[in-house]
Amino acid sequence: MSAIVRFSVSLEDDLLERFDCYCRQERFATRSEAVRQLVRDALTKHAWTSESREVAGTLTLVYDHHRPQLRDHLTRLQHDHTELVISTLHAHLTHDLCLEVIVLRGPSAKLQQIAAQLRGLKGIYKGELVMAAAEDGGRKAQSRPKGGVRRAEGRRMKALIPPPSELRPGSSDP
Ligand code: NI
User: Fold this and answer.
1) How far does residue 92's CA lie from ligand 1's centre (Å)?
2) What is the pLDDT of residues 63-92, one digit of tens each?
3) 47-58 as b/e, with b when 16 or more CB fall inside 10 Å?
4) Cα(127) to centroid of ligand 1, in Å?
5) Ligand 1: distance of its center to the CA of 126 in Å?
6) Which of 63, 94, 127, 146 has the most beta carbons within 10 angstroms of its beta carbon?
7) pTM value?
8) Residue 160's pLDDT is what?
9) Model confidence over 102-136: pLDDT tens digits?
């Protein structure tokens, strides 16, 4: 286990007040707990922006479907990146607004690239990418062992087919 190191931080009082409010709302036992988690989150996020790690993610878009050509651009971009786009869920929110959740998988840098392209289209009101490690030991590992799955289809196949343990929910195996 790592050694615990203490360090002090200088903050504006109003910022500290807001931070304490955040700690209470998020039910952190101590400020240190909250800082640890925030630091971990920030470092993870930073690592993803600079690494070619395999990740899975969802891109949530809210947009106005009346916007000229937006629908076409969205569809074209996704067809241009079928190696990254696994699935899309569409919901008609109001007369004007659509919600689209795009499930992605691939190297983190590429996911961020396509996410930036998609949410940068005119008429997109909100675009948020959430990513999770998509490899075993994802917190640490840079590479994963090569399996028996052919490289070209490997990613998509693995994404679409759950592991055998999940395919047998009723199984009585111990
Ligand atoms: Ni719609």
Assistant:
1) 4
2) 999 998 999 999 999 999 999 999 999 999
3) ebeeeebbbbbb
4) 15
5) 15
6) 63
7) 0.56
8) 47
9) 999 999 889 999 999 998 998 999 999 998 877 76
